[in-house]
Amino acid sequence: MEETRHDQQRDANLVGAVLERGGRTLAVAESLTGGLVASAFARASGSSTWFRGGIVAYSSAVKYDLLGVPDGPVVSEAAALAMARGAGRLLEADVAAAVTGVGGPDPQDGEQPGTVWAATWPDQLGGAVLLRLSGSPESICEQACAKTVRILRQRLELTAGAFAGPGGG
User: What are 56's strand-pairing partners?
Assistant: First the structure.
């Protein structure tokens, strides 16, 4: 797990570098990870210039009422996308990432532990990804955090031209 944390912090630093270079800002919304994603970005180099903040929406009601998740399961592609969009809107950020899923040990919304959706916003960053993780609840949360940060890094690198400066995204 130490290697995962090291990789995760490297990825968070790289996200920050891309955002800072483009004059962009980041917001996150997370559920099962309970603040781990926001913490990774807050610890990244120069985060005070590009990280707007995070929303921990652990309760389904918070997802629906605050982030605009549509009625239905909160462990879903639609929920992850709405969470990312909602975080970007509420925190007035140019880019957002979100993660929702089941850490365990019990199923939720008919989904087994380890079922996780990670999403990025705006839409040009590629939407949501279904992850199937395994391990203890703690391990699933750590993996979900690391993978969410990695997905955002990869997508920002692929679309770096669109984030070259203010107004480009």
Answer: 30
